[in-house]
């Protein structure tokens, strides 16, 4: 009898110990970052959760775009009476942007001066020579310094070469070749035709063109545009930005796209543009900077949520762009294919289905790059390239990739 009582007592103590250990483990594993934790079974009947807002603020995500954040104190109580644990949880609102669609004029000054071609220099005997090429300077290289002085314009390059030729007969050139910084001595030739010493190069210090604004954050004034990198027209090399700006542009003609010819918007810059912006980055997925002035899209009076890569689906969508004057218009497209494994500016295939746009432009044309793509009420990307052999179709870039390249949103926030 005594033994039975001892056994029952031990069993009871063991059960209580197991329950206590389980309870302690449960306390350790209580959710730490959930505003609405879910409990199941037995625990749901004895653990009560109370949440109280403590703070509202606007925060900057990775020092870039703004999101609203609300902080809550989450308290876990046994039977709703005895406090077990208290956590502080910050809840981020969805990232929101205003879709663009505005036609923009882009001017960009290179960091250094780009070599875009070789030009023979005729010496006094009538012989054609290529001094820079012979010294190892190639098309696509960036001239950084001549005789120790930085050069930023084609005129500065020309003057520095002529002066060094007169004074020394040689020119010390610092330049960037692919990812290497090199220095070479070049022997310039006196050109009788121009009366100046020359190295035999064609150079360019800036680029200009027309594109489309992709998005704008009205809180931080940050913007993204184009959806693809700006390259030099002759070398196809990425242009390293020294200085640049965007302003409004007006479209006065359309060259329709057709098989083998992509077509283009023909526009001009607006001298007294309602807005302007800096160009701080030229990346694989577009240009980025800060905007000032009045930015308006008649279809979006307020910012809309960003649609991340995982939310992009095959199916209908809308694009916003200008095909006449400065008026932003809405057109129907279809996302034919989504390519999740690509990290460049070709993440989806976009097909124009809007008959009015097909009649006006033939489909996707140059200058339409950057036109925002909206699907299910969220901005998911921007138009980037046209298919040369099928103007009805083109590529689009994920807005997520643009934000990542801009340095404004880290991959964790964009998951």
UniProtKB/TrEMBL annotation:
The keyword Zinc does not apply. Keywords: Membrane, Transmembrane, Transmembrane helix. The keyword Membrane applies. Pfam families: PDZ_2, Peptidase_S55. Residues 180-415 form the Peptidase S55 domain. The chain crosses the membrane at residues 12-28. This is Stage IV sporulation protein B. It comes from Desulfosporosinus orientis (strain ATCC 19365 / DSM 765 / NCIMB 8382 / VKM B-1628 / Singapore I) (Desulfotomaculum orientis).
């Amino acid at each position: 009898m005594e033994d039975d009582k001892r056994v029952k007592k031990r069993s009871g103590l063991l059960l209580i110990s197991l329950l206590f250990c389980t309870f302690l483990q449960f306390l350790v594993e209580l959710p730490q970052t959930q505003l609405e934790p879910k409990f199941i079974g037995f625990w749901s009947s004895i653990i009560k959760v109370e949440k109280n807002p403590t703070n509202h603020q606007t925060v900057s995500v990775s020092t870039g775009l703004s999101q609203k954040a609300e902080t809550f104190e989450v308290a876990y109580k046994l039977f709703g009476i005895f406090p077990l644990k208290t956590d502080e949880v910050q809840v981020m609102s969805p990232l929101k942007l205003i879709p663009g669609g505005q036609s923009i004029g882009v001017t960009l000054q290179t960091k250094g001066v780009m070599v875009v071609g070789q030009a023979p220099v005729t010496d006094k005997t009538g012989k054609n020579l290529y001094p820079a090429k012979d010294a190892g300077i190639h098309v696509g290289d960036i001239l950084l310094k001549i005789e120790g002085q930085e050069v930023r314009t084609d005129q500065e390059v020309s003057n520095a070469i002529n002066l060094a030729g007169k004074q020394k007969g040689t020119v010390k050139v610092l330049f960037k070749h692919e990812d290497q910084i090199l220095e070479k001595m070049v022997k310039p030739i006196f050109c009788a035709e121009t009366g100046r010493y020359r190295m035999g190069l064609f150079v360019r210090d800036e680029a200009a063109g027309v594109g489309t604004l992709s998005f704008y954050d009205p809180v931080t004034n940050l913007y993204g545009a184009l959806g693809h990198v700006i390259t030099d027209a002759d070398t196809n090399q990425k242009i390293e930005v020294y200085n640049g700006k965007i302003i409004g542009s007006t479209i006065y003609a359309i060259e329709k796209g057709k098989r083998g010819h992509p077509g283009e918007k023909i526009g001009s810059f607006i001298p007294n543009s309602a807005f302007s912006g800096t160009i701080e980055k030229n990346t694989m997925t577009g240009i980025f900077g800060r905007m000032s002035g009045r930015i308006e899209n008649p279809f979006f009076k307020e910012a809309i949520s960003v649609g991340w890569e995982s939310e992009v689906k095959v199916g209908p969508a809308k694009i916003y762009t200008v095909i006449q004057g400065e008026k932003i218009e809405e057109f129907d497209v279809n996302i034919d294919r989504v390519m999740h494994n690509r990290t460049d500016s070709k993440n989806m295939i976009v097909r124009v289905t809007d008959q009015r746009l097909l009649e006006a432009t033939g489909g996707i044309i140059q200058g339409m790059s950057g036109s925002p793509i909206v699907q299910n009420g969220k901005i998911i990307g921007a138009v980037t390239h046209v298919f040369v052999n099928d103007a009805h179709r083109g590529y689009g870039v994920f807005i997520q990739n643009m934000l990542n390249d801009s340095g404004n949103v880290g991959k964790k926030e964009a998951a």
